[in-house]
Amino acid sequence: MTKVFYGMAGTALAAVLGALLFGQLDSDGIQRVAGMSMIVFDLASATFAIRTSRRGDLHPGTRRAWRWIAAAMGTLVIASVSFAVFKSWSSFPAPGDVVRLAFVPVMLTGLLTLQRRGGGGRSRHKTLLDVGTVVAGGAMVMWYFAVGPLLDDGHSSGAAVLGALAYPIGDLVLLFGVALVLTQGADPSVRRPLRLMAIALLFEISGNIYLGFLRAQAGLVGAIPASWQFACWVIGHSLITVAAFEQFRTARGEAPVTGSDRERVVNRLPYLSIGLALALLTGAALRAGRPSWIGLVLGSVALTGFVVARQIVALRENHEMAVTDGLTGLANRSRLGDALGRALARSSRNGRAVGVLLADLNGFKEVNDTLGHAAGDRMLVEFAGMLRRSVLGSDVVGRLGGDEFAVVLQDIGSRANAEAVIRRLRREMELPIMIDDVVVRIRAAVGIAVAEPGATNADALLRRADEAMYENKRRIKSGVPGGTEEEEALAAGLWGAAERGELRVHYQPVVELPTGEINGMEALVRWEHPERGTIPPGVFIPIAEKTGAIEEIGAWVLAEACAQVAQWRAGGRRLHLGVNASPRQLTGGFADRVIRTLAETGFPATELIIEVTESVQVENPAVVAELHLLHGHGVRIALDDFGTGYSTLRYLTQLPIDILKIDQSFVAVLNGTANGAMVTDTVLRLGRMMNLTTIAEGVESAEQATELVELGCRSAQGYHFARPMPAAELTALLYPAEVSSAATS
What we know:
Elements: H1 2-22, H2 27-53, H3 60-86, H4 95-113, H5 124-152, H6 158-184, H7 188-218, H8 229-251, H9 263-267, H10 269-288, H11 291-322, H12 333-350, E1 354-362, H13 364-371, H14 373-390, E2 396-401, E3 404-409, H15 415-429, E4 433-435, E5 438-440, E6 443-451, H16 458-475, H17 485-494, E7 503-512, E8 518-529, E9 533-535, H18 537-547, H19 549-570, E10 576-580, H20 590-601, E11 608-612, H21 621-632, E12 636-642, H22 648-654, E13 659-662, H23 664-667, H24 674-689, E14 693-696, H25 702-711, E15 715-716, H26 727-734, H27 736-744
Parallel strand pairs: 8-10, 10-11, 11-12, 12-13, 13-14
Antiparallel strand pairs: 1-3, 1-6, 2-3, 4-5, 7-8, 7-15, 8-9
Keywords: Membrane, Transmembrane, Transmembrane helix
Organism: Actinoplanes lutulentus
Transmembrane segments: 37-53, 65-86, 98-115, 127-146, 158-182, 194-214, 226-248, 269-286
C-alpha cells in the first residue's frame, strides 16, 4: 500500500507542477489545474485524517487532533471550490476568503491537540522565547515582502490593506502553532506527520507571501497574473495529504516509531529565524544605498552572528553532556535509545540485521565494598575501554547505569558476527588489570539479541537481550561469563556440591621443628566431581571466589574441620587448626558465623587460625572490624603467602596478625647460601621483632628443613613431612598404635 500511494502521489504532483510551471497555460488554465489538484489532495487528506481519527490504537488526544485536522481540510475543500467557481484565486475580498481564513483557527486547534511528550525537559519560558523568535522572524519576512510595500503605497485601498494583513496574520498564527508543537516536543507517534505538516504549512505561507508581494508590486486590487504561488500551494496541500497518510500508516503498525537526535534541528529553529532576519536587514540596507546605515547593519549582523555561533557551540556541548555518561564517556541511556531506533529504521530500509549486546559486571559490588568507590569507578572505566575495543567503529557503546552496559550493533549482518564481538570481549577480559595494587580480573554476564531485517520494535529487542543475559547468569549461577564452557559448567556444579556430598576436607600437618612432631594442621578442600573425578583446588577455588560459591564452601569446610579436629583433640592430641578465608567471606557477619561454628562443634577459639592472604583489603572498615572481632574472641589470624603481595607491612600494622606463613617460593630457593636464605631470614627476623609466630610452607626436602632450623624457624609444613590427606589417613598417622591394634584384633 505504501509504495502504491507514494507512486501515485508523486506522479500526480509531478504532473501538476509540470503543467503549472512548464505547460504554458494561460491564467485561467493555471487556476483550474491548481484548483482541481488542491481539491483532490484536500479530499484525500480529509479521508486519511478521518480514518486515522477512528483508530482505537492511537492516543485519544491524537485521534481528536486528526478530527480537527480533517475539519480544517474540509474548509480548504470548500474554499477551493469557491475560488474555482468565482475565479477569485488572486483577488480580495472574495467569498472563498472567509472560508479560507477559517482554516487557520481550526488547523491551529488540531496542531495544539496533538499528543505531546510531556514537555521534553524544556522550561515554559524557554519554549515561549523560542516560539517568539521564530514568529518574529516570520513576521519580518511578511512585512518586508508583502505588508510594508503596500502600506508605503499611499494609493492602496482599504480592501487591499485588509487583504495584505489578513493572510499574513493567519500565517503567523499557523507559524506560532507549528513552532510551539515542534519546540515542546511531539510524541514519537506523531513526530513524522507533524514535521511533514510543518513543511506543508511553510509552503502554504510562502505562497501567501509571494501573492502579497505581487499585490504590493501591482498596487491594485484586481487580478494578479498567475505565478509561482500556485506551485507552493499545491506542494503544501500534497504534503498535508502525505502527513495524514503517514499518521494512518503509523497507526496500522507499518512505520517504525523511533527517537532521533534530529530534535537538535528543532532547537535551532530560533537561530534560523535570526539568520533570515539578519539577511533581510542586510538586503534592505544595501538596497537603501546609505553607507552610514550599511556599516551599522553589517556590524550588527557580525555581532549577532558571533553570539549565535557561541550559542550553537554551547547548545552542541550541552547536548553532548545530556547524552553522554559522565564517568566512562560512553553514550547514556537516552543516546542508546536513539541509536537503536535509527538503526532499526535503517534496517527496515536496507535489510541489514541489527543487534543489541547487554553486559552486567560480576564482582563490581565486591570491588566497591573492599577497595572503595574510586576503585569501582576505575573498574567501570576499564570495562568501557574493553567494550570499545571489541566492537566496530560504527557500533554505539553505552552505559545504562550502575554496572550495566549496552552496545547497539549496527549493520551486524548475522548472529555469527554478533557472537564474534563476544569472543573479542572475552579476549579483552582475559587480561587482568591493576586497581590499587591489587590484580583484578573483570568478568561480565553477556546477553545478545539480533533483530530480523525489517523489525522495528526496539523494546522487544532489548527484552530479548536482557533475557539472554540473565539466562547466562542463571545458567552458571552468576558464574564466570566470558570463561570457557568447562569453567561455566564447573561454576554451575559448585553450587550445592557440599550438600550433594561431593566435597572432601584434606588435612596437611604442621610440624614442630626440629622434632617433626605434629602440632597442628591446615584444612584444604577437595572436590570429587561425580563425572570429572578429582578437580584440583587451583581450578575450582578461583571460580568459587568469582561466583560467590566460596561462602557456602568456606562455611562447610570450617564446620567439618572444626568437628574433626575436635575429635582428635578429644583423643589426647593438642592440635591447632588453620582454615583459609577468602576476601569475599570476610564481610557480612563472618565473625559471628565462625563464633557460632566454634560453639556448635566445641572447638576452642584459641586453637583456630583464620588464614587470610594479602588480597584482603585493609581500606575496608568492615573487613578490619570482622578480623578484630575474631581476634578479640581468641581466634588467631595468620597472614598467608607472606611477602608475595603488595603493601605487606601495612597489613602487619593495621590487621591483628598473629602468624606469618612464609611463602613456599622463598623456601624453594634455600640452598645453603646467604643469598638463598636472605628473604626467609628477613621474614623470620621480622616475626621475632614483632613477636609473631612464623610457619614455613612448601618444605619439600630434608635440606630445606635443616636450613630452616638453623635460621630459627620452629614450625613448617610441606610434602617433606606429609601431603594433604583425608581424615582417615591422618588418624592413622596421629594414632599409629591404635590403628595397628585395631588391625590385629
